[in-house]
Structures are given as C-alpha cells and as structure tokens.
C-alpha cells in the first residue's frame, strides 16, 4: 500500500478542512445570493474512504441525483462534483424561475442550463478561495450535467482515482436551505498528484 | 425470501440458487454476470477499469477486468460450477457526462466493456447477452435460480437479459 493519501497527518487533514471551509463558505454565500434564501453549510468533511464507500456519503449508490461535473485545470488539477438529490434540483429551479414550489417535475433544457449555471457559480466561488490559499490559478472546465443514480455519477470520478489507488480523499460539504427542501453535496476531489502540490502551497508539506 | 448478495464497486461475489447477486448504480463500470445453468452457481463482478497492468495500484484484483474475471471464475468453479457450461452477460460501460472534446478517461466505459469482452474470450466463456453503452446508470441483478440478468434504469425502464 503506497498511497500518499493514507500517510496524511492530522495537521494536513485539518489544513485541507480549513481550505474546504473557506471554499464552501464562499460557495454558500454565492448560492444564497442567487436564490435569496439563507443557506446552511456543514463543516466540511475531509475523509479518506475506500472507493466503494464513497456513494454512501450521499445516501447510497441508487439515490437519484442531479450531478454537475467539472474538471479543474491549473497546477493542482482535480474534479468537482456538485450533487443534488433530484427533488432539490427541482426546488432550486422553481426558485430560480420564480415558479410555484413543487411545480418542476422534470428539467427542460433551460432548466438544465440553470442548474449548470448554479454549479458554475458554486465551483467558481470555491475555486477562488482555493486559488487564494494556494496562489495557484485554478479554473473549472465547462460544466456537464447528468441526472441519474449517485453511484453511476460518482463512478466517473472514482474510476480516475482508481488508477492510482483504492482510496479517495474527499473534501465534502453539505448545503441546505431550511424549509425549502434544498440540499446538496459539493465534492472536491484532487487528482492524486495534486495533493502534494496543494499541501506544499499551504505550507503543511512534510 | 432468497438471499440478496450485494456487490460493491470494485468487488465481486459468488453464490448459489435461490440467492441473487446485485450491484447498484453502475455508470462507466461494467457488471459481469457469470452463470452455470445446471448447478445454478454464479457470480457478479463490478469492475472499474480495463487493465491492471496499466494501473499504478493493483492491490485489489476485483477492480480490473483482467484480474477480477479469472478470480471470480475460479470461485464459481470451487462452488460447483463447471467451466465449459459457464456463460456471461454484461451491462454498464456508460458515458455519464458528455463534454464537447471528451478525453480518453471520459470514454472509459466503452474501454471497460471492450476489455471485458476480450477477457471473456480469452477465458473461453461465451458472452450470451449484453446491454452496454449509453449515458445512463444501471442496477443489475443476477438471479441464480433462473440465470436471469435483470437491468434497472431510471428513465429507460427495466429489462431481463
């Protein structure tokens, strides 16, 4: 077992959590401005999980979700996946489009663009914070959207990590808007080689 | 109520009738059901990658098509399956997200399915049915009493292979 993520110290994990905290805070502020609702955010979870256990974080591999996926470009490449339970995606679209709550039951192409734009704004806000910390320019790709089983969407990222090891370092934050039935999970998953680069840039490299 | 044996990502499980083997939410991964209709012994693998030789970490044989299949087939034979009677059905290998210029890693589903077909051929196990590709997830279940390979999707319905 030679995976670098299994050798992370608690100091390094705390540092990553702090980066996640600021990134997610930025993203939550951006989201609450778009939908004019208060957004609650949990303290980011930094977990090192066996690949097969990652779908359990969102409630199991068969949960129906909307996922917005980005590649992150720059000196510390990685992936971002913003996952929303399908009903949360519908609620978000209702709010954005000024529709009555519960109106949206499927997404037309305009609705899909709206969900991707939310993903865009969140990932941009998150990466801004990460760029500030690391002094790297980190940019998201254009988004791609899919609505399907959580396991199927997560597999895309897990397969990339699977070439390097059997564990994933997941920086995960949960968002929710009390009473509006909106919640989501935001995953930042650094490519295996990026982790050392990020740790060095924030000054906690061994 | 027959046992339902669950298979996680990068894992495989074998069993005997009346049990069923199931794996949830296959995306670009491929589910491979291998079955002996006489002894009603079989297994289901959920592989993530085509080839252990190209990977940096190959500690878990169940993760790769080329190592998961021989290991699972050996266990099926140990449980009473007969090599010459074994037949396979496969599903999965989707491309979940589409980008304008898809990189190689985005086409991993297709490559997984290709690798599985090749490994089955090398093992002399006939591939009798498949449901691969597309851009949607699948939950698959091998019913060991009948050999039926059940495929469930969100918007494309259910089918039995």
UniProtKB/TrEMBL annotation, chain A:
<dbReference type="InterPro" id="IPR028976">
    <property type="entry name" value="CheC-like_sf"/>
</dbReference>
<feature type="domain" description="CheC-like protein">
    <location>
        <begin position="12"/>
        <end position="46"/>
    </location>
</feature>
<dbReference type="InterPro" id="IPR007597">
    <property type="entry name" value="CheC"/>
</dbReference>
<protein>
    <submittedName>
        <fullName>CheC, inhibitor of MCP methylation</fullName>
    </submittedName>
</protein>
<keyword id="KW-0145">Chemotaxis</keyword>
<keyword id="KW-0378">Hydrolase</keyword>
<dbReference type="GO" id="GO:0006935">
    <property type="term" value="P:chemotaxis"/>
</dbReference>
<dbReference type="InterPro" id="IPR050992">
    <property type="entry name" value="CheZ_family_phosphatases"/>
</dbReference>
<dbReference type="GO" id="GO:0016787">
    <property type="term" value="F:hydrolase activity"/>
</dbReference>
<feature type="domain" description="CheC-like protein">
    <location>
        <begin position="112"/>
        <end position="145"/>
    </location>
</feature>
<dbReference type="Pfam" id="PF04509">
    <property type="entry name" value="CheC"/>
</dbReference>
From TrEMBL, chain B:
<dbReference type="GO" id="GO:0006935">
    <property type="term" value="P:chemotaxis"/>
</dbReference>
<dbReference type="GO" id="GO:0050568">
    <property type="term" value="F:protein-glutamine glutaminase activity"/>
</dbReference>
<comment type="function">
    <text>Probably deamidates glutamine residues to glutamate on methyl-accepting chemotaxis receptors (MCPs), playing an important role in chemotaxis.</text>
</comment>
<dbReference type="InterPro" id="IPR038592">
    <property type="entry name" value="CheD-like_sf"/>
</dbReference>
<comment type="similarity">
    <text>Belongs to the CheD family.</text>
</comment>
<keyword id="KW-0378">Hydrolase</keyword>
<dbReference type="InterPro" id="IPR005659">
    <property type="entry name" value="Chemorcpt_Glu_NH3ase_CheD"/>
</dbReference>
<dbReference type="InterPro" id="IPR011324">
    <property type="entry name" value="Cytotoxic_necrot_fac-like_cat"/>
</dbReference>
<dbReference type="Pfam" id="PF03975">
    <property type="entry name" value="CheD"/>
</dbReference>
<protein>
    <recommendedName>
        <fullName>Probable chemoreceptor glutamine deamidase CheD</fullName>
        <ecNumber>3.5.1.44</ecNumber>
    </recommendedName>
</protein>
<keyword id="KW-0145">Chemotaxis</keyword>
